[in-house]
Amino acid sequence: MFMVNTQTIPGYRITQTLGLAQGNTIRAKHIGRDFMAGLKNIVGGEIKGYTELLTEARNEAIGRMIAQAQQMGANAIVNVRFSTASVMQAAAEMFAYGTAVIVEPENAR
Fold first, then answer.
1. In this structure, which of 12, 13, 44, 72 has its CB flanked by the most CB atoms within 10 Å?
2. Residue ranges of the chain with pLDDT lower than 50?
3. What are phi and psi for residue 72, nearest 5 degrees?
4. How many angstroms separate the CA atoms of 83 and 70, rounded?
């Protein structure tokens, strides 16, 4: 599955546009991560627990988006974008979306 944040894939042409593919997940903060984040807030620096949390959430959202695109019959997703939102005080949503398409090599036919 090709996945790009551009409208086209170099060397390929879009033969069919299938529609929006999307995936999301909502993750809550772990109390230990939250405590350590509070300490980091005092001294500064990267909050590794949150970085890991967002990385896991992004990977899960991407996986769900790819699964939906595959169910639609796509072999690529173009214009991939990400969005985050706070759902409640201790939870955030990671949303991945793009256009599911069928592509073929430009020199095919």
1. 12
2. none
3. -80, -10
4. 21
